[in-house]
What does this fold into?
Amino acid sequence: MNAVDSPSKPWYRILYVQVLLAVGVGILIGHFWPDTGKALKPLGDGFIKLIKMIIAPIIFCTVVHGIASMSDMKKLGRVGAKTLFYFEIVSTFALILGLVVVNILKPGAGFNIDATSLDSKVGTAFAAQAHSLSTVDFLLNIIPTTFFDAFAKGDLLQVLLVSILTAFALNSLGERGKPILHGIELIAQLFFGIMSRVVKAAPIGALGAMAFTVGSYGIGSLNRLLALMGGFYLTAALFVFIVLGIIAHAAGFSVVRFLIYIKEEIFLVLGTSSSETALPGMIVKMQRLGCNPGTVGLVIPTGYSFNLDGTNIYMSMAAVFLAQATNTPLDLGQQISLLFVAMLSSKGASGVTGAGFIALAATLAVVPRIPIESLALLVGIDRFMSECRAITNLIGNGVATVVISRWENEVTAEQINEAMRVQGSATDLQAIAPAAK
It folds into this structure.
């Protein structure tokens, strides 16, 4: 089945509809039968593990084939420099926007929480994990112990480093490297074929993850923290539709149309609370827009560590919220210092389970004015906020990929808009296989 044929499918066979229905069923199970909801946790965990199983080889094949196929190695350095520049500028906007909104809404004002009355074990545990996320450790961690250790751990930056080194070595072989390059292309199609089958289990994984979340934390118990959640979701929406909307408009495409184009991936992240589950599909869809495979292979994986827009918004808002809730005054200078610390700690937490929460702990550990014990306030709602963090991260990295491709003149605005009009699904086997070439 090709992309044009997709709309003729019965509605109940469309993946994102199945995921959305599964999320709804999961919420109902978790709310009315919480014990059953908790017991369904392995369904969500199992699906995420299946996706993570194939991420490393897909990134390796995509990056190696894309870079090794480049005749101009100067382009690689140029694309890398533009990508990091873009990430730092946009990530800073996300942090600033979070600070502005939380200072306007003041969701923590009036809570009057005594930090000494909270469970100190929560803050201590996450601070211990965050302690190892120093800049030096982060940089050293990019280098795997062995070549295959990067694939065993599934660390995206390690896989990216190994992929780039392999691509350079393969490029230097010239004609002798062509058979190897062709073999990597075939292996890529193999893994995309595996992914097309694994992703069909997305509704089951989404149902299990959502049932566990609602069953464990409930809905009614969140009333006191709804102000922070509402403010965070509002800020993320403002960031996507205004900040990313302006960037997308300048690049010649509509961010709304882009969201429709990647709707399958958005609903997949909504159900699993993990942006990594949508990574293979995003790679496919960015290539189908006309973006160069080498650019896609660099921007998407790098963005998962350096362009966490949703995480940045969460960190700035959550940190100031905790300061407000514990009656800890922060002047403008202290909030600016908080912003700079958050810029570093958000990158150091990449690839760690619950990265946003651990990055927040790392930030509070460096800014001791806000009591680390106050993290206990956010434990109950962190899972509900993680969906928004992950979706915002996903959208931000997708927009970044298209913008960098436009800067490199790899694709025209007309080509992008035409590709978006063809509402194909990247989860169909026949749609994926050609895109992997």
